[in-house]
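Changelog excerpt

This revision adds worked examples to the README so contributors can see how folded entries look when concatenated. The first example is reproduced verbatim below.
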Amino acid sequence: MKPVVIYTTPICGYCAAAKRLLDSKDVEYTEIDVMTDATKKQEMMQRAGRHTVPQIFIGDNHVGGCDDLYALERSGKLDPMLAA
C-alpha cells in the first residue's frame, strides 16, 4: 500500500470524516496536526497549494480534501490508487 499523509486539525469535522473513510479501509496513514505547528502548516501549503484542511496525499499524489477523497471512493478509483 502506498504511504498516506493527511494534514489535519483536531477541530475539523472534514478531517474526522476523511480519517473515518481511511480507517474503514484499514489504511495506515501519517496524520500531521497543523493547528499548533506553523512550520507544518507552511509545509502543507507548499505541498498542496491550499491552506484548508484536510489535505491528503497518497504516495506523491495530492488527492485534495475530504470531498475529493470521497469522490475517489464513489468512482471506484480510491482502492487502485492506494494499492502499491
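The second example, added in the same revision:
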Amino acid sequence: MRQNGTIKFFNHDRGFGFITPADGGKDVFVHITAFEQAGLPTPEEGAKISFVAEDDRRGRGKQAAQLELA
C-alpha cells in the first residue's frame, strides 16, 4: 500500500535515513539504493515522498521502496 511521508533524517555519508509517514505511524527506514533504483536525486531532509513499506530482507522490520516524489 502506497504511503506519503516526509524525509525526517538522511545521513549522506552512511547512505540511509528515515521517513515519517503522513498518517503519523512509526518512522520507516530508507536506504540510498531505494533512491537510486527510483532514479531520484539524493534526498534532502523535509522533502515530501511517497513509498511502499516492504519487509526488510534481513528481517529487521519495514523499509521504504518504490519511491516517488510527492
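Reviewer comment on example two: The chain is about 10% helix and 50% strand. The longest strand covers residues 2-11.
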